[in-house]
Amino acid sequence: MKKGLMASIITLSLFVISACSNDTNQIDSFMHIHGLEYSQHDESIFLATHMGLINLNEESWELVGEPEHQHDFMGYTVIDENVMISSGHPGARSDYVDPLGVIISHDSGETWEPIALYEEVDFHLLHVNEGNQEIMYGIDVYNSNLYRSNDGGYDWDVVDTAGLPGPVASVLSLTSHPQSPDYLLAGTETGMYESSDGGQTWALKENNLSASSFQTLDSDSEDLVAYLFGEKEGLYLSEDFGETWASLNFKVDDDYIMYISNHPTDDQKIVLGSMSQSIYETKDFGKSWEVLAEEGKRKN
């Protein structure tokens, strides 16, 4: 197993976003990816960063919302056409207090409001089950706890995590089975772990294999895309939720893919965000790739 991935993530957290010199919301560079998701309105991509949410499209990159809603988003996830959920820290122009807890937007990121655990948690990982979006899991880095919600993020319970190597905040990736949301996979620096009881107890699944990111592809299958490291390295597809893996023939050198998003209507499109702030997109399920950003700078 490779070591030092968590240390590299922490080092990169010192970077901040870079904007254009004019007074508009348009930008051409950024630093520190905290999440990315396809828009459910069009072909654009939402990128969560240290200083706000950015909408990436072919014409321009633009910060979303007024300055008071441009937060340091963590665990960012799109729920449906207009609804997004996240965690993190308030922006410099915000009246909110740190940490934000769980926040929600009903207007595609233009405005946000806390709905749970305000001033209590900072979920660096916030996973929404593909088959039942009422069920969510969050990993709080403040107190190093795993939380679960059964009502779409409004109420949360701390979950005991017996058998999961600590601290819990060091978990790199987390996903749940679309049809069996109590079954979880977690990627750590010491291997891949599994839980069949909603995270209460864990067992080592793979000693020489782990994942820096997971993404379930739909609610009806067991299809799972992951960026693996260890005895397998690169982007892989599993059609049985992690039991077997087939390579998608994509690997980044001296880097890790930390975020994976699949398009809501086009099953050939996947976008990836890396630890070194590069963004890659495929429109043919991995046969070819386009670099949208390289080390935080837009590719023309």
TrEMBL record:
CDD domains according to UniProt: Sialidase_non-viral
Signal peptide: 1-21
Cited InterPro entries: Glycosyl_F510_1955-like (IPR054817), Sortilin_N (IPR031778), VPS10-sortilin (IPR050310), WD40/YVTN_repeat-like_dom_sf (IPR015943)
Keyword annotations: Repeat, Signal
Residues annotated as domain Sortilin N-terminal: 102-225, 235-290
Domain of life: Bacteria
Name of this chain's protein: Sortilin N-terminal domain-containing protein
Species lineage: Bacteria, Bacillati, Bacillota, Bacilli, Bacillales
